[in-house]
């Protein structure tokens, strides 16, 4: 548990940003966002394959971020395991792809995105509590209110997940050179998480270098002035 907490704290030091924040994904790629909202598991399957550079030998359940990772027989049939993950654990599949991209490109989550994701989770928890209270009390009015709240929570959940998946798609478009940039190469394969990699310097800053000092001549010591050069033997000394 302590190791996972340290890995989560490491993401706070990432300096790069997503190509588009959650609020801008709807306008950035509206058709894909609608597709992700209608068929989220299918989109999650395709995004995970693309995040792995279509190399399913690199696949690990939940990208190595869950206790079950590496214990589900992924090496024997990764396609079936991925399909099971996206349909049975849809939320985890979206979050795992997000963590995978963040750790690969050192991307931080903005405060606005954190607020949106936190609101989604809080609304889901409140809807669950209202449903439990409605079952215990047996009030018809409270039951109807809990159903309305649950419906709102489901709508927010589907919408935020669709925006996150569109955000992941745009980031991989940037990675693959769709926006005109140089496509990135495939990183070396790793079995589990990429947290152990050192954080590279921020993009756009050249490595520090120090030019040699200019304008200063090399150090030298001038000869002493005012004294005649020494001669041997001195004048007046008898010669043998």
Automatic annotation (TrEMBL):
The chain crosses the membrane at residues 116-137. It comes from the Eukaryota. Residues 198-210 have a biased composition (Pro residues). Residues 190-211 are annotated as: Disordered. The keyword Transmembrane helix applies. PANTHER family: PLAC8 FAMILY PROTEIN. This is PLAC8 family protein. The lineage of its organism: Eukaryota, Viridiplantae, Streptophyta, Embryophyta, Tracheophyta.
């Amino acid at each position: 548990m302590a190791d996972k907490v340290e890995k989560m704290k490491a993401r706070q030091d990432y300096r790069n940003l997503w190509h588009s924040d959650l609020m801008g994904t709807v306008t950035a790629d509206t058709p894909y966002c609608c597709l992700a909202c209608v068929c989220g598991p299918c989109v999650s399957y395709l995004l995970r394959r693309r995040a792995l550079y279509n190399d399913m030998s690199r696949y690990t359940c939940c990208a190595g971020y869950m206790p079950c990772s590496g214990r589900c027989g992924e090496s024997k049939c990764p396609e079936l395991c991925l399909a099971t993950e996206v349909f049975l654990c849809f939320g985890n599949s979206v979050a795992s792809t997000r963590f995978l991209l963040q750790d690969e490109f050192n991307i931080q989550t903005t405060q606005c995105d954190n607020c949106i994701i936190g609101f989604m989770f809080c609304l889901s928890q409140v809807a669950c509590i209202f449903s439990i209270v409605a079952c215990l009390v047996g009030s018809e009015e409270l039951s109807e209110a809990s159903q309305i709240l649950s419906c709102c929570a489901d709508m927010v959940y589907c919408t935020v997940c669709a925006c996150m998946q569109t955000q992941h798609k745009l980031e991989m478009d940037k990675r693959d050179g769709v926006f005109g940039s140089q496509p990135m190469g495939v990183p070396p394969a790793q079995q589990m998480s990429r947290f152990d990699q050192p954080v590279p310097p921020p993009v756009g800053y050249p490595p520090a270098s120090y030019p040699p000092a200019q304008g200063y001549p090399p150090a030298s010591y001038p000869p002493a002035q005012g004294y005649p050069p020494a001669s041997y033997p001195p004048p007046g000394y008898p010669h043998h």
